[in-house]
Design a protein that fits this description.
The longest helix is centred in the first third of the chain and has 14 residues. This protein has one domain: TIM Barrel (Alpha-Beta Barrel), CATH 3.20.20.100. It contains ten helices and ten strands. About 40% of the residues lie in helices and about 15% in strands. The radius of gyration is 18 Å and the shape is globular. The chain has about 280 residues and is of the alpha/beta class.
């Protein structure tokens, strides 16, 4: 089993590669979560809005792993981040997961109708009540990061954001890290179902030269920037490949070539409730 590096961020110890469960539901979702843990993943990422916390919880239970060996993350959906609703969402998530606490609870998206101070104060209360060991944010722009930090009474340990070679996120990444947060990359290989990042000739050439998959190259590019990645797949072979990214390196030249792939319309996740991006 690979020895996964740990990213330390404002008191949290976050395994640098996690298993993203977004599309994994039902019995298959439970089975693939267990498979990821069997492969060696110790960081499991879910969310209330994925509608699969029960399935992920069953997978965790079936793995037989000790609770303290896992870093479990869930998120509160943007319609539930007002005071009272947020705490209730956290309690509901724990019931579904079958856990006494999560390691990290995130506000999934900001909500313009709920002041950041209100949602962050409620998030802090979930930590103070022991529902979560750490708190974080997701999809918060640079100005929102500053606002969240100003409003919090507990350390904010990460900002989770879409990040892959097609999307330049240097501003929000630098802002998050300036506050000691980890930068957690979701969709780290872009949209595999539409080709995207992994069909780029530059990435395919590097992959061929290294004897690696294009997805492994994209993930390696991300972790060499000191980020956490949470790739998702329902294919155990790919889940294993996505985990095996710590025994090779990209050169400075290769890193620059991959970074050069960013495009103006590189974002793949841009729902109607998204904030005005940096």
């Amino acid at each position: 089993m690979a020895n996964v590096p740990i990213i330390s961020a404002n008191g949290a110890q976050i395994p640098q590669v996690g298993y993203g469960t977004m599309r994994q539901k039902g019995d298959a979702g439970a089975e693939v979560t267990k498979a990821a843990i069997d492969i060696g993943y110790r960081h499991i990422d879910t969310a209330a809005n994925y509608g699969n916390e029960e399935d992920v919880g069953r997978g965790i239970k079936a793995s037989g792993i000790k609770r303290e060996e896992l870093f479990v993350v869930t998120k509160v959906w943007f319609v539930n981040i007002a005071d009272g609703k947020l705490q209730q969402s956290a309690e509901d998530s724990l019931k579904k997961l079958g856990l006494d606490y999560v390691d990290l609870l995130l506000i999934h998206w900001p909500n313009p109708e709920v002041p950041i101070k209100e949602s962050i104060t409620a998030l802090c209360q979930t930590k103070q009540r022991g529902l979560t060991r750490h708190i974080g944010i997701s999809n918060f722009t640079t100005s929102m990061v500053d606002e969240a930090v100003a409003a919090t009474s507990e350390p904010i340990v990460c900002n989770q954001f879409e990040y892959h070679p097609h999307l330049d996120q240097s501003k929000v990444m630098a802002k998050s890290k300036s506050h000691g947060m980890a930068f957690v990359a979701y969709c780290p290989i872009g949209r595999a179902d539409v080709g995207g990042v992994i069909s780029e000739p530059v990435i395919q050439e590097i992959a061929k030269a290294k004897g690696r998959t294009p997805a492994q190259v994209a993930l390696r590019w991300n972790i060499q920037q000191g980020n956490v990645v949470i790739p998702g797949s329902s294919n155990p072979k790919r889940i294993k490949e996505n985990f095996e990214i710590f025994d090779f390196e990209l050169s400075a030249d290769e890193m620059a070539k991959v970074s050069g792939l960013s495009i103006p319309n590189g974002r793949t996740v841009n729902p109607p409730h998204a904030p005005k991006w940096d």
